Automatic annotation (TrEMBL):
It comes from the Bacteria. Gene3D superfamilies: 6.10.140.190, Winged helix-like DNA-binding domain superfamily/Winged helix DNA-binding domain. It holds the Pfam family Vir_act_alpha_C. Residues 92-178 form the Transcription regulator PadR C-terminal domain. Signal peptide: none annotated. Residues 7-80 form the Transcription regulator PadR N-terminal domain. This is PadR family transcriptional regulator. It comes from Streptomyces pactum.
Amino acid sequence: MALEHAILVSLLEKPGSGYELARRFERSIGYFWTATHQQIYRVLRRMEGDGLLAVREVPQQSRPDKKEYTVATPGRRALSAWLHEPVEPESIRHELAVKIRGAAFDDPAALISEVERHRKAHDDRLRRYLTGERRDFTGPEAPRPLDVGQELQHVVLRGGIAFERMTIAWLDDVLDTLHGLSAARSGT
């Protein structure tokens, strides 16, 4: 997927400035597609030049005017074409898994702190996902009923929640294995 497609989706959900778009990436779509502020601004300029986006200047008091981006007709056509293209299933490149296998040739216990660090990162991400789910989809302040876009955002978020839960369970299994191997090596 190109960053352009993620930007088109985000701007179709809600028009906004480059800054607002970057904040949305940090808060929601960025869980599944990351981009720096610089990358987003660079791609926005290119998409504007290609006619995929429309831009209007929004005056602001005591601050420079901001540009608000919306998706132009060619941008909608480009997104539609991409949505109809097949997508290859993703391959997982998992450096930690290779390290775990490689630990057979060193001290497996040496990986415990690294696996714990990964587990904490996934646990933190799961908490952010669950907080976002309560805020945007299931909590008392969430809109009822959800519209089509919200339903699709929620199903993607549920996939992320399931992935994080599966990863945490796997990392717990890895930690149990590493602790067991460490105990066996030390004779306890």
